[in-house]
Write a structure and sequence with these properties.
alpha/beta, Rossmann fold, 6-stranded mixed β-sheet
Amino acid sequence: MRARIYLVRHGETSWNAGGRFQGHSDIPLTDKGKEQAQYLAERLRKEKIDAFYSSDLLRARETAEILAKPHGLPVQNVKELREINFGQWEGLTSREISENFSEISSEWWSKPLTTQIPSGERLLDVVHRCQEAILRIAEEQVDKSSVVVAHGGVIRALVGTVLGMDLNYFWKLRLDNVSLTVIEIFESDKAILELYNDTCHLDGQKACD
């Protein structure tokens, strides 16, 4: 099996701009977020893309639809690609979480894999569901290339897994809005990271040449 996956983080939202945890909250793109997606759509226009997949959350779907339009392909929604469910932390900033959930937030930053967010998820839960989803996509698109639009937590978890990282440190992987990350999957336990957090398209197409 060989499948090339273009992983894209969704465009900017008002909560991104305000530093608020989004999780499963269904926040749309800002005008800037839509413009960011257009820049990446231009970059990918000449690439041979066989399929488009997206988290079912609005910010990811809007981004994916912009990317898919030049290719005339539909976007397939995959619920398992949703961001971490931040439960009671959604809509709050890091500072507000630290002030209101001091003990559990400290535990989460040091051990996110196994720490249960109040009314939310553990990172381990996210890892399991997003790995299953990406392997299913790879099996559907053998010897093909697919764009998968998801979220910061999901993409960091996938990349950290490919690199064999201790995922308790997944948050140390910087991931910008509408960044492009490319992995090639060969088997369920064999993949290569080809490109990470590339945003040259946001500086103009010439910057990517």
